[in-house]
Amino acid sequence: MHKVNLKDVEEQERRSPQGKFHKFVKDVSIALGRDRESLDLVKRHPFDLATVRIPKGKSYCPYHSHGAESELYLVVSGRGSIRDKSGTTEVSAGDAFFFGPGDAHQLTNAGDEDFAYYVVADNPRGDTCYYPDSGKWAVQLEGCEEAIVKGGIADYYDGEE
Questions:
Q1: CA 133 to centroid of chain Cα atoms
Q2: What are phi and psi of 58, to 5 degrees?
Q3: For residues 109 and 10, what is the distance between their CA atoms, to the nearest angstrom?
Q4: Is there a contact between 159 and 147 (Cβ–Cβ < 8 Å)?
Q5: Where are the beta strands (DSSP E) in 10-151?
Q6: Residue among 27, 67, 48 at smallest CA distance from 123
Q7: Do residues 158 and 116 lie in contact, with contact meaning Cβ atoms separated by under 8 Å?
Q8: What is the pTM of this model?
Q9: pLDDT class for 124, splitting at 50, 70, 90?
């Protein structure tokens, strides 16, 4: 058995160049030994778990859909605004929601305190992302590298801020 305590998992801060997207992530599955590059499901794990905090007024990332990945969310604290194809929905502590492949979504902090949640994803190899607002695709290259394509390779935040 592998075991970690959330207080011991390193929190990584990720922020876009102009600050519209800002998050703090604890990759619990990585702390439990997940090997992102392995094709072996035992080393890769059948799903990933992360904790996320989004500061006031910020979004996790641009509006996007996955080609193959499914994600399950459980809100821990704060208030969020979830954008999907039907508009926006407010969520708060205790709310759970799910996005399957092709379901475009974006999570934004809609309150005065950090918006915090757990996300469980199946992370299939070869997943792609589509960004409807900017017409870009994220495609996986060999290994763990990713290319952002918009009629050619583009910057991740191109057309988003």
A1: 17
A2: -110, 165
A3: 22
A4: no
A5: 12-15, 22-27, 48-54, 65-66, 71-77, 79-84, 87-92, 96-99, 106-109, 115-121, 129-131, 136-140, 146-149
A6: 48
A7: no
A8: 0.88
A9: confident
Q: Is the separation of the CB atoms in 58 and 21 below 8 Å?
A: yes
Residue type, 50: A
61 SS3 class: coil
Q: Cα separation of 4 and 50, whole Å?
A: 13
Report the distance separating Cα 156 and Cα 16, nearest Å. 9
Look at residues 93, 59, 95, 53 and name the one whose alpha carbon lies nearest to residue 76. 93
Model pLDDT, residue 120: 97
Could you tell me which CATH class the domain 6-125 is placed in?
Answer: mainly beta
CA distance 70 to 102: 9
HSE, side-chain direction, 13 A CA sphere, residue 74: 8
For the ranges 38-47, 100-109, 134-143, the maximum mean pLDDT occurs at 100-109
Residue ranges of domains in the chain: 6-125
Residue with tokens 């949640």, as numbered in its chain: 117
DSSP state at residue 64: B
